[in-house]
Design a protein that fits this description.
mainly alpha, 997 residues, single chain, 5-stranded mixed beta sheet, 45 helices
Length: 997
């Protein structure tokens, strides 16, 4: 690089980045430039100058040093030529900071300290500052206060120069080591602590305190960034003073310390003390404790997180920290704690002028406070039960949150990177003039942006200069911080965790067992075993579980079956332990945790489905996606996925998987009250029909490929609840198979082909599985189980015309094409319409058959010992009551009233009321009962995990069904039973009156 620069030879100083018209004059005055160009001996200095943030500013600084110390100039030039360390450090400082350049000019020879490798810790800084204020003058008298302050100011500024030079040197000389963010802020903090100690030493001397330790004790407690060891170059240093003994003397010492340090180094701010600026500057330990226990506000505990003794009486300081420790780490239990912290952040943000909000590094949206507030809130909430989180440092606290699983690894890494970037920008801005500023330059300030970018190390990209790249980077980091801040800071789970008492966070103690019993767990010892299994070890997974379980235990306690919910949660967690996003979703999405807890503590069907369809878990946080899918779209995507499979078995496996996903999605939305019962039934029916269509298509394609053609067209006709789009979670699919021979194919050949296809579909779908059954039931076909599985369309026409019975006409009222050849399905409907909608309705004899048949079905099929008032299907006012009455009226009137030609029971009731056959009040009572019975039947399946027609009459199942139907946890489940009986009793009365005429 050096040789490349040498070859440039003579020319303009602009070659080295100088733009000031005075640059050549300054270079000539230094003896570095002639008419031939630069002197060869100092080319390396010029190359280094070209790398600094502002070459013109650095050259002016050198020119000023030459003017004030001409005798020392040759030594400086020689050192710059020979020492990359001094060259990088000195030029780096001169190229960015006018304030530090003024210090160097005002104190000739101070540049020599940049060649020394000395200690950068608190002890080293303290010794140097104490030496500066304690040194005696030549005549043996003690320094005056003004002299002490001046000496402290010079010593402090010299050490600050060393820190800045070490921070900037690598930007000029790349071979120099770049200190980390933590190293720089740690050095700045150590220097501030040393200054407080030196200031206290001056105060003791100037106040003439004799026997100080016998009269009073004073401890200086660092707060804010000093307490967190993350100071800026220019910061107020927040402190709290704790005294003992003579408080008047302690207050005098504290006030003098603040003045001395304020005049020499930085402002010392004690506004974080109890009662703020209006409160006593120094309080006793007991006074602090009394205030914090009785009067302190939430933000004060947030500030106390960073409290750390840094000067004065070490024992008193340690006692103070010990006293506040329990207060700080129980603050999250305060009422509205999380909301208070969130409100405080909004209030701080609201104080930023609107025109500055996008440039404010500290307080604006996406600024440093966004990170700090989010980290502190998470620390205060989770740190009660995890001492690893109790760090006063933002960066260390964020790292601990990431390591413990409270924040995602990627989120923690991104947030740390962006936070350090903004802090670096802040440091460089403050170094310019050693003034406290947090305002990013405006985009119109091109020169300032370029200097700032070069000081940070930002490089140009393509046609964008350093300043433009810096603006893009700044906005990117600010947007990332804001996104993650809103994700973490407003996480709903935080309030739930904060509401858990601190003792309850200790999950495996005897007190935990007692608390579980008090919460309603029937087997608290068993619950503790589940907790131990979930939190065992030191893995990240165990840490996340440890954070989640206190909340989950409370949430399960509000469900009908807390023990079952916790057991299901353990099973789901163990089944999904290798699913990388599982615990992350629970941790980051409070709504998901709350909804999952309700589902697991209410339903036995959901956990079984969830372990095989875990992707639905991610939908729990988005109600619109959970409940808003269009059944037609679901059907299309399911069929397309099945068709893409290479073989029969994989096609069926895919169909089962997608049906499982859809059933779980619907079940979750149903349990959470996001879908009404008719939408649930339509979605389940659509999924069943799609499975049939997809499987039938794959089987047909395989058979056609085997025999080289299709001897017949096939259509599947949905019957019963499938035909009415009224399927429940445990319903079979009642169907008819109809075929039509291809040209040149006999009926027998067509039926054999179609029967083989239909039987294969039934076997594939009906094979044993852990999922709810996929039974294809064709018992409603002509001649029932004794008849052929498949008939041709002509055979159906002939059978119904000659042999069809009234119950078959009744069954056909719900016939609907669901799969296969749609055109054939439409023609089948045309064949059966005269059968199910007979001209002139039913004669008296056939109507009597329907009534007798209903009575016989209810008598013969009602389970022995069943309560007829609580049987959803065959009980009084149940599904059969309403459906038989509706179907009788359809058989009688649908021919002349096409509005009644619907397969839907609620749809037919609405039509009957519309045309006046049934009174609107009666239709409403029947609809209410039918919908209620359907809901209860579905709810019972969800709660028990298996189909049942009997309403639970006692126990957890009854409580769970009541909860699913909208009753509150504290309600008496008997009220639900009474309501069910009242509703169905009214409907039964209407059925008795209308059905039996």
């Amino acid at each position: 690089m050096l040789m490349a620069e040498r070859t440039r030879g003579a020319g303009s100083p602009a070659r080295y980045g100088f733009t000031d018209s005075r640059a050549e004059e300054q270079l000539r005055a230094a003896g570095w430039w002639s008419d031939r160009g630069p002197d060869d001996s100092i080319v390396n200095i010029l190359v280094s100058l070209s790398r600094v943030a502002d070459p013109d500013l650095a050259l002016r600084g050198l020119d000023r040093l030459r003017e004030v110390d001409q005798a020392g100039w040759p030594e400086l030039v020689k050192t710059l030529r020979e020492s990359a360390v001094v060259r990088g450090r000195l030029l780096g400082v001169l190229g960015i900071s006018t304030a530090l350049a003024d210090f160097l000019v005002g104190n000739p020879g101070e540049w020599r300290r940049l060649s020394r490798e000395e200690g950068t810790d608190f002890t080293s800084y303290r010794d140097k500052l104490l030496a500066s204020v304690n040194a005696n003058s030549a005549d043996g008298t003690t320094r005056t206060r003004n002299d002490a302050e001046q000496a402290l100011r010079t010593a402090y500024r010299g050490l600050l120069l060393e820190i800045a030079a070490g921070d900037l040197g690598h930007t000029v000389e790349p071979e120099l080591n770049a200190p980390s963010y933590v190293e720089v802020t740690g050095q700045l903090t150590a220097l501030a602590e040393a200054a407080l100690n030196a200031g206290l030493e001056v105060a003791l001397s100037q106040c003439g305190v004799a026997g100080f330790q016998e009269r009073t004790r004073l401890a200086v407690i660092a707060m804010g960034k000093c307490g967190g060891r993350e100071l800026n170059y220019v910061s107020d240093v927040d402190v709290v003073f704790v005294g003992d003994g003579d408080l008047e003397l302690a207050t005098k010492l504290a006030r003098t310390t603040m003045t001395v340090v304020g005049n020499s180094c930085f402002e010392v701010d004690a506004a974080l003390r109890p009662e703020g600026r209006a409160g006593a500057l120094v309080r006793t330990l007991e006074g602090h404790a009394a205030y914090y226990r009785k009067w302190a506000r939430t933000w004060e505990f947030q500030a106390l997180m960073k409290a750390r003794p840094v000067a004065g009486d070490a024992e008193l300081g340690a006692q103070y920290v010990e006293m506040i420790d329990s207060l700080v780490w129980s603050a999250a239990e305060r009422e509205n704690f999380v909301a208070d912290v969130q409100q405080m952040r909004r209030r701080v943000e609201g104080h930023v002028p609107l025109e500055l909000t996008d440039r404010e590094l500290k307080l604006g949206r996406g600024g440093l406070r966004d990170v700090e507030f989010a980290v502190q809130l998470l620390q205060l909430v989770h740190g009660r039960g995890d001492s690893e989180l109790r760090s006063p440092s933002t960066v260390d606290g964020l790292a601990a949150l990431g390591a413990g699983g409270y924040v995602g690894r990627a989120d923690a890494a991104e947030l740390e990177t962006s936070y350090k970037f903004l802090r670096t920008v802040e440091h460089r801005l403050q170094l310019r003039r050693l003034r406290r500023t947090h305002l990013f330059p405006e985009t119109s300030q091109k020169a300032e942006l370029r200097v700032l970018a070069r000081a940070i190390g930002v490089k140009p990209e393509g046609d964008r200069g350093e300043g433009d790249v810096l603006v893009v980077e700044f906005r990117r980091h600010a947007q990332r911080i804001r996104r993650l801040h809103e994700k973490l800071f407003y996480r709903p789970l935080l309030q739930a965790v904060a509401s858990v008492p601190t003792d309850a966070l200790r999950l495996t103690t005897k007190q935990a067992s007692n608390r579980l019993a008090a919460l309603g767990y029937a087997a608290p010892d068993g619950a503790l075993q589940h907790i131990r299994a979930l939190t065992a070890g030191v893995s990240r997974r165990a840490s996340i579980q440890h954070a989640l379980l206190p909340v989950l235990l409370d949430l399960f306690a509000d469900t009908p079956d807390p023990d079952g919910g916790l057991l299901s949660y353990r099973k789901v967690s163990e089944a999904l332990e290798d699913t990388p996003w599982y615990l992350r979703v629970l941790r980051d999405e409070g709504a998901v945790v709350e909804r999952l807890a309700f589902l697991l503590g209410t339903s036995k069907l959901v956990p079984d489905l969830l372990v095989r369809a875990p992707e639905v878990l991610q939908l729990l946080g988005d109600p619109a996606r959970l409940a808003g899918r269009d059944p037609a779209e679901v059907s299309r995507s399911l069929q397309a996925a099945v068709r893409r499979q290479p073989g029969l078995q994989s096609a069926v496996t895919t169909a089962r998987s997608l049906r499982r996903h859809e059933m779980l999605r619907v079940a979750a939305a149903d349990l959470l009250g996001l879908m009404d019962v008719q939408a649930v039934c339509r979605a389940l029916s659509s999924a069943w029909a799609a499975v049939l269509q997809g499987t039938l298509s794959v089987v047909l394609n395989r058979r056609q490929a085997e025999i080289g053609g299709a001897p017949a067209r096939i259509a599947v006709i949905g019957m019963g609840r499938l035909g009415g789009s009224e399927l429940g979670y445990g319903s079979d699919a009642d169907v008819l198979f109809v075929c039509e021979p291809a040209e040149g194919v006999t009926d027998g050949e067509a039926v054999r082909f179609a029967s083989g296809v239909a039987e294969t579909v039934r076997q594939l779908l009906g094979a044993p599985s852990a999922d709810p059954p996929l039974q294809v039931d064709a018992d409603l076909r002509p001649e029932g189980r004794g008849g052929p599985l498949v008939r041709t369309l002509d055979s159906y026409r002939a059978y119904y015309a000659r042999w069809g019975e009234v119950w078959e006409a009744q069954a056909l009222l719900r016939a609907r094409f669901v799969a296969g050849d749609a055109e054939l399905g439409q023609r089948f409907n045309a064949v059966i319409d005269p059968i199910r909608y007979p001209e002139g309705g039913l004669d008296t004899g056939r109507a009597r058959q329907v009534r007798r048949m209903k009575a016989r079905v209810q008598s013969e099929r009602m389970p022995k010992g069943a309560d007829p008032t609580l049987h959803t299907k065959l009980g009084r006012g149940g599904l059969a009551d309403v459906e038989w009455m509706v179907q009788l009226l359809q058989l009688n009137h649908a021919y002349k009233l096409p509005v009644l030609q619907t397969t839907s029971t609620p749809g037919a009731l609405a039509a009957l009321a519309e045309v006046g056959i049934v009174d609107a009040t009666d239709a409403a009572a029947l609809t209410e009962a039918w919908l209620l019975a359907t809901r209860v039947r579905n709810a019972t399946m969800l709660v028990r995990g298996k189909a049942a027609d009997q309403v639970p009459s006692t126990g957890r199942d009854l409580a769970a069904v009541a909860r699913v139907l909208g009753y509150e946890p504290g309600d008496d489940p008997g009220e639900f039973v009474d309501a069910y009986r009242r509703t169905t009793r009214r409907a039964h009365a209407v059925v008795e009156r209308i059905f039996y005429d």
